[in-house]
Each structure stands twice: as C-alpha cells, then as structure tokens.
Amino acid sequence: MARVSQEHLDARRRQILDGAARCFARNGFHATSMQDVLKEVGLSAGAVYRYFSGKEDIIAAITEETFAVIRGAFEDAARMTPPPTPDALLGRVLAGVLSGQVHGLERRTFAALVVQLWSETLRDGRLAVLLDEGYATMRAAWAKLVDAYRSAGVLEGDVSGDDVARTMIAAAQGFLVQEALFGDVRPEMVENGLRGLMSITPQKIS
Description:
Blueprint: H1 6-27, H2 34-41, H3 45-49, H4 55-78, H5 86-98, H6 107-120, H7 125-151, H8 161-181, H9 187-198
C-alpha cells in the first residue's frame, strides 16, 4: 500500500477545518452536528475521526488557528520600526485580520466566527486557556510598543503601558464585533476615528 504523503494529510486536515468553520459560522457551534460537518466536507466519519476525536477537538483546532491569526497581526504591527502612531497601527492590525479569507470565510463571516469563539471560551476551559495565552502575548508585545513611544518622545505622562495595550486591544475587538454585526468596517475608518480622538485637547479647569 502506497504511503500517504504529509502534504496530502495536511490538505485533508485543512479541508476538514475549513468545512467545519463554515458550518460553525453559519449555524453556531451547538446547532452544528458532526453529521453537518461530514456533509459539508464530503468525507466519511472514519476519515474525519482520523484527524479529530470529535466536534470539540475540531472547535479547539479552529480556535487555536483563529486566535493565531489575530495575535500574529498584533505582533507584526508591534514589531515595526519605527513604530507607527496608534491610529495607523490599529488600522494595520485590522487590515491584516480582515484581509484575505481565513478558513475560506469572507471577512464578515470570519468576524462572526471570532465572536462565537470568544463566547465559547466562557464555557470551555480548554478554549479559555488558548485565549488567555494569546491575550497575554498581545498585551506584552504592545506594552513594549508603549516603551518605544516613550523613547521616541511621542508619548507623555506616566500611564501604564499595560493600560494602553489593553485599550488598543479592546478597540480592535470592538471593531471586529462591529464587522460581525454590521459589516463595512474599513481600516481607514478606524484610523480616522482614532486620529480624531487623539487630536482632542483636554480643557484646562480654571
């Protein structure tokens, strides 16, 4: 019997994950059965169970890949030298996350899947660990970015680097939710909005 190449195994695993992601994005995790996944990917139960022990295992794999896409966009932006201002940086992050098709999904469908994954971490400890690890990595990367802003003399005050990092992450998460619910989130929109907020001059209290 001829050996199956690693390339074939990887392609088959990719086929299962992409098909399952389409099912989950369309109907949600709990309304999607393994039979739905099998029908979507066009494979037998035996072929799918060769790669995954069940639906929960598939969800975990999709979660890990999806969070890695988001984390990678943050980390790539944070490594830029010199660092762009927060408005340009966040626009670049969202462009990276929403550009192209992840799991074969259009951008709004992908954003909807991300929101579902976040919700699922509230009940699944395995997924919560994946989210916590990614979140901690992003916070650390962006806290270092705050240090770079200070070194460049463009950030004043003694605000905590972690506070700034969490605020930037929250803004990106919020725009992903907007894309999932309403669509039409564009990087330039994010940049313009943040630039406008950054231009506000606090009124001095007499």
